[in-house]
Amino acid sequence: MYQPPLDAAYSQATEEELHTRIRAAKRALGSRIVILGHHYQRDDIIQYADYRGDSYKLCKDAQRHPEADAIVFCGVHFMAESADILSADRQTVILPNLSAGCSMADMANIHQVERVWEELGQVTDVSRIIPITYMNSAADLKAFVGAHQGAVCTSSNARKVIEWALDRGDKLLFFPDQHLGRNTACRMGFDVERDMLVWDPKQTLGGNSPAKIQDSTVLLWKGHCSVHGRFTLEQVTLSRKVHPNIHVVVHPECTKDVVDAADSFGSTEFIIRAVEAGEPGSKWAIGTEINLVHRLAAENPDKFIMCLDPITCPCSTMYRIHPSFLCYVLEKLVQGTTVNRIDVPDDIKRHAITALERMIAITEQLQSALAV
3-state class of 285 per DSSP? Predict the structure, then answer.
């Protein structure tokens, strides 16, 4: 989405001025707002967050505040859409910078997905294919899977959602991140060559033969995360050479060779819990976004913590949430004006919430089983 340039009152304000004004606006708004900060945000945004977490956790956190008139989501566009879908009708969701998107989410759009579905119908029975979209996708893709008996997944519940899908169909179409789908399916015993294929939406039949499509169980969309795609097997090897006994933990959006070489892998929340539970003096090489790695290092001074990639790897679109934009939306709310509202149309919301509610039910079932 297009973000109009801010006027000089914001674009030319000093950092000190902006922070003073943000604090004043937040005090004035009080319980009328709740501010959500994704783990990948810079520290000068995170300091104002009432909650910090991954996209799904933050949506759930927002639901704890039905009294809030506005939810200010310091994240990216698809996250704010999910918050709007799951929040009360009377609540407004605001994205401080409308240009904060996600390169992975942009790798699959509704026109491509609908065309792929038509192509699949030419060579196999689509009634037996269950579509799964990663949380990192647009609302209309969540609506698509909701309308086609599918569900949303996160990096923490992908395995359970895939198991749920294959109880209901013979195949699954997993988008937009191929690596999360591949890494999860491999841990479930599926073979990359025998059971999986990569679907390139820019090619006829995704670049596959009808026979390969018919023989495969896991159809992986050709998409990836630009941040997690930077981590390499060579970085894992080097970190262990330079720092003996270091524990390598990576996100499942990394490539399969990196995940296979790591000591452990999991969602952002998994990585945080693993580091926090580590012994004092333990060493950690982390394969995820640099702002989170730096924050973990600052909050765990008794451990050695480094980013697996020696070159800074911020999420560039997340970085667009600058204090000037947060100040802008908060001061407008103080003045009684809502800007940068994210409003998912009702026809999309209806099916998207079905897909999200399926995921929530699957997740709650998993949590109940673990608690036994």
Answer: strand
3-state secondary structure at position 173: strand
CB contact set of 115 (below 8 Å; sequence gap of 6+): 201
CB atoms within 10 A of CB 163: 13
Which residues lie below 8 Å from residue 9, measured CB to CB, with a gap of 6+?
none
Cβ proximity of 200 and 207 under 8 Å:
yes
On whether the CB atoms of residues 99 and 318 are closer than 8 A, the answer is no
- Which residue in this structure is represented by tokens 């820019």? 202
Q: Check if the beta carbon of residue 226 is closer than 8 Å to that of residue 104.
A: yes
Q: Find the DSSP H helices in the chain.
A: 8-11, 15-29, 43-46, 55-62, 77-86, 110-123, 139-147, 158-166, 178-187, 192-195, 210-215, 233-242, 256-261, 268-276, 290-299, 323-334, 346-371
Between CA 180 and CA 174 the distance in angstroms is 9
Whole-angstrom Cα distance, residue 363 to residue 232?
31
Distance from chain centroid for Cα 187 = 21
Q: Dig out the tokens for 202 from the structure.
A: 């820019």
- Count of CB atoms situated within 10 Å of the CB of 260: 13
Integer Cα distance of 139 and 362 in angstroms: 20
Nearest to residue 96, comparing CAs of 1, 227, 197? 1
pLDDT in tens, the chain (372 residues): 789 999 999 999 999 999 999 999 999 999 999 999 999 999 999 999 999 999 889 988 999 999 999 999 999 999 999 999 999 999 999 999 999 988 999 999 999 999 999 999 999 999 999 999 999 999 999 999 999 999 999 999 999 999 999 999 999 999 999 999 999 999 999 999 999 999 999 999 999 999 999 999 999 999 999 999 999 999 999 999 999 999 999 999 999 999 999 999 999 999 999 999 999 999 999 999 999 999 999 999 999 999 999 876 677 778 899 999 999 999 999 999 999 999 999 999 999 999 999 999 998 876 655 554
Which residues is 250 bridged to in the sheet? 265, 287
